[in-house]
UniProtKB/TrEMBL annotation:
<keyword id="KW-0496">Mitochondrion</keyword>
<keyword id="KW-0812">Transmembrane</keyword>
<dbReference type="GO" id="GO:0005739">
    <property type="term" value="C:mitochondrion"/>
</dbReference>
<dbReference type="GO" id="GO:0008284">
    <property type="term" value="P:positive regulation of cell population proliferation"/>
</dbReference>
<dbReference type="InterPro" id="IPR012404">
    <property type="entry name" value="UCP036436"/>
</dbReference>
<feature type="transmembrane region" description="Helical">
    <location>
        <begin position="154"/>
        <end position="174"/>
    </location>
</feature>
<comment type="similarity">
    <text>Belongs to the SLC35F solute transporter family.</text>
</comment>
<feature type="transmembrane region" description="Helical">
    <location>
        <begin position="194"/>
        <end position="211"/>
    </location>
</feature>
<dbReference type="Pfam" id="PF06027">
    <property type="entry name" value="SLC35F"/>
</dbReference>
<feature type="transmembrane region" description="Helical">
    <location>
        <begin position="98"/>
        <end position="116"/>
    </location>
</feature>
<feature type="transmembrane region" description="Helical">
    <location>
        <begin position="26"/>
        <end position="46"/>
    </location>
</feature>
<keyword id="KW-1133">Transmembrane helix</keyword>
<feature type="transmembrane region" description="Helical">
    <location>
        <begin position="67"/>
        <end position="86"/>
    </location>
</feature>
<feature type="transmembrane region" description="Helical">
    <location>
        <begin position="123"/>
        <end position="142"/>
    </location>
</feature>
<protein>
    <recommendedName>
        <fullName>Solute carrier family 35 member F6</fullName>
    </recommendedName>
</protein>
<dbReference type="GO" id="GO:1901029">
    <property type="term" value="P:negative regulation of mitochondrial outer membrane permeabilization involved in apoptotic signaling pathway"/>
</dbReference>
<keyword id="KW-0813">Transport</keyword>
């Protein structure tokens, strides 16, 4: 959300250039990796604390090669940079909703490369997610577009977001196949990937300063990224610096809190909280007048939420409660009907 605020600020750049929007996606991606990198500092602080109060029940950390994190970090860097470019072209709510496409590609790649077998509910979740993406895309096509977001830019932005989710899915598969088997602490994993991404993307800002980008550029020079222009805008508009600092802090807190929620509660709880983040961003964007309301977005969001819930197994506790509340007579009839094939069912499973 802080990165969205930065995009809506205007300030003059270097050399007395006219005021223009702060559209520096790759510099913002560097800030995101800086936030992830800070998780590494949090990991070492926690390890120092654990050294003073040793916990024998904790799993010992296995030695590993940090270069294992380089391929996922490259995927993270590419996907994040594409998403920040897309954020300048489409609305924040569509950006958040279309990120749900990661379920589709992660499920398909896990079947293809990890040999995983998806349950029926997960396939239904993927189909529901595809339907939700279609509805959100229709909402973008039918919405009124201002001079800042033309229809062609919105379509391009939506396609870039979906393309980025393919790269993010590859990152998740790589992490599961090569990283998680080493029992690396999640904060250490996020922080190491952040270190690689921060260093590599910071170095890439130098050639990006000279590469022409045409309509994809948001700076007066028309290049892929103009970090000097960004720093000049930050110096002349302190609110941009505040928004960037908020982006870095929120990334660090989101990763730390997400890991804590998954550890203490469940991954399903984290998914629900992440969905609430989409609602908050959507509500604030509407309240601040940054985008127009379209009823199809509500339908698309609900379908995406249902797909995510099915894929993550959120329906199982509900079905378990319903089965426990079944009348005894009906349960007995069901047992008699299934009694003859019970052995075959158990053998098949």
């Amino acid at each position: 959300m802080s990165s969205l605020w930065a995009d809506n600020f205007v300030a003059p750049g270097c050399g007395g250039s006219q005021e223009h929007s702060f559209q520096h996606p790759f510099l913002q991606a560097v800030g995101m990796f800086l936030g992830e990198f800070s998780c590494l500092a949090a990991f070492y602080l926690l390890r120092c604390r654990a050294a003073r109060h040793p916990d024998t029940s904790a799993d010992p950390q296995q030695p590993f090669n940090p270069l294992l994190f380089l391929p996922p970090a490259l995927c993270d860097m590419t996907g994040t940079s594409i998403m920040y470019v897309a954020l300048n072209m489409t609305s924040a709510s569509s950006f958040q909703m279309l990120r749900g496409a990661v379920i589709i590609f992660t499920g398909l790649f896990s079947v293809a490369f990890l040999g995983r077998r998806l349950a029926l509910s997960q396939w239904l979740g993927i189909l529901a997610t595809i339907a939700g993406l279609v509805v959100v895309g229709l909402a973008d096509l039918l919405s009124k577009h201002d001079s800042q977001h033309k229809l062609s830019e919105v379509i391009t932005g939506d396609l870039l977001i979906i393309m980025a989710q393919i790269i993010v899915s590859i990152q998740m598969v790589l992490e599961e196949k090569f990283v998680y088997k080493h029992n690396v602490h999640p904060l250490r994993a996020v922080g190491t990937e952040g270190l690689f991404g921060f260093v590599i993307l910071s170095l890439l800002l130098i050639p990006m300063y000279y590469i022409p980008a045409g309509s994809f550029s948001g700076n007066p020079r028309g290049t892929l990224e103009d970090a000097l222009d960004a720093f000049c805008q930050v110096g002349r508009q302190p609110l941009i610096a505040l928004a960037l600092l908020g982006n870095i802090s929120s990334i660090a807190f989101f990763n730390f809190a997400g890991i804590s929620v998954t550890k203490e509660l469940s991954a399903t709880t984290r998914m629900v909280l992440d969905s609430l983040r989409t609602v908050v961003i959507w509500a604030l964007s509407l309240a601040l007048g940054w985008e127009a309301f379209h009823p199809l977005q509500i339908l698309g969001f609900l379908i995406l939420l249902a797909g995510t819930a099915l894929y993550n197994g959120l329906h199982r506790p509900l079905l378990a409660r319903l089965s426990r509340g079944r009348p005894p007579a009906e349960e007995g009839e069901r047992e008699r009907l299934l009694g003859g094939s019970r052995t075959a069912i158990n053998n098949a499973s």
